Amino acid sequence: MAEAIWQARGVVKGQAEGEALISQTALSFLGDLDIRSGQVVGRSSDLLGACVAGRVLVLPASRGSAGAWRFLYQLKVHETHPAALILREMPDPSVMQGAMLAKVPVLVAPDGDFWSELRDGDVVTVDGESGQIIRS
């Protein structure tokens, strides 16, 4: 597969690399993830049973609650956190707070053919400062 570079809006700084884990449904960090394993346990998610640990989690949106930040931070504490988040739209403020505390880069609204070209398992490098996403 050829290298591809997409531009997004970096909203939480940091750099990460990992395999893409792509969802077509919104995910809640409060209730949809087991913090000890990083496994998706929410039945409304199309990622049910998948593990987010070390993956670049690609979502249309996050489903939030005021406590979501604690769960994202606890994923970091248990070393089961995603390497980065890429979303179509801005996540709710609690997810943003959790990402900042956990040092998980967040990128929003990638351009071009990102949504049609990226595949599950593609290795991507993300830069939350520049907003660049590179598939190697």
Describe this structure in a few short sentences:
This protein is α/β, with parallel strands linked by helices.
Verbal overview:
- The chain is α/β, with parallel strands linked by helices.
- The chain is built from three helices and eight strands, in the order ββββαβαβαββ.
- Strands 1-8-7-3-4-5-6-2 form an eight-stranded mixed sheet.
- The protein is globular, with a radius of gyration of 13 Å.
- The model has no long low-confidence stretch (mean pLDDT 95).
Which helices and strands occur, and which strands form pairs?
Layout: E1 4-7, E2 9-12, E3 15-22, E4 56-59, H1 68-77, E5 84-87, H2 93-102, E6 106-108, H3 114-117, E7 123-127, E8 132-135
Number of H- or I-type helical stretches: 3
Low-confidence stretches: none
Helix content: 10-25%
| Major sheet description | 8 strands, mixed
The count of DSSP E runs of length 2 or more, i.e. the number of strands, is: 8
What's the pLDDT, averaged over the residues?
A: 95
| SSE-based structural type | alpha/beta
**Over all CA atoms, what is the radius of gyration?**
13 Å
Main sheet: strand order: 1-8-7-3-4-5-6-2
C-alpha end-to-end distance:
8 Å
Question: Given the C-alpha coordinates, what overall shape results?
Answer: globular
Kindly estimate the percentage of residues that lie in beta strands according to DSSP. 25-35%
* Sequence of secondary-structure elements: EEEEHEHEHEE
Characteristic terms for this protein:
about 20% helix; alpha/beta; about 140 residues; eight-stranded mixed beta sheet; 3 helices
